[in-house]
Amino acid sequence: MDIDKTIEIFEEYFPREDWAKVRKVSIKFKDILILKWFGRGNVDFYRRYFLKISYKDHTLKKSSLSAYDKNFLKQRVKIFNQYLKTL
Fold first, then answer.
1. 34-43 in b/e burial notation, b at 16+ Cβ within 10 A?
2. Is 85 exposed, middle or buried (CB count within 10 Å of its CB: 0-12, 13-18, 19+)?
């Protein structure tokens, strides 16, 4: 996996100018309870995924993600957080 391409993927979710201000990036989810009650099997259609961006000044920003984007970014969050520590 090319590290430069991994890092550039996050430009779609927040601009490169803000990267020096970011402390950490993580993927979170929130369940919609009414839909969860009707769920059957191992399908998680009731979950909404977010990219949570924690800034150094303790502010938070959330960007909505699809389930596909969540699976795609999940593997790259750790690499990106390590890159942020070098800024």
1. eeeeeeeeee
2. exposed
Cβ atoms of 65 and 51 closer than 8 Å: yes
- For residue range 9-31, list pLDDT tens digits in order: 888 888 888 888 999 999 998 87
Taking only the tens place, the pLDDT of each residue in 46-72 is 788 999 999 999 999 898 888 888 888
User: From CA 35, how far away is CA 71, in angstroms rounded?
Assistant: 21
Element spanning 61, H or E: strand 60-65
How far, in Å, CA of 27 to CA of 11, rounded?
Answer: 16
What is the spatial distance between Cα 13 and Cα 50, in angstroms, rounded to a whole number?
Answer: 11
Q: Are 27 and 67 in contact (CB under 8 A)?
A: no
Residue 35 host element (H or E)? helix 33-37
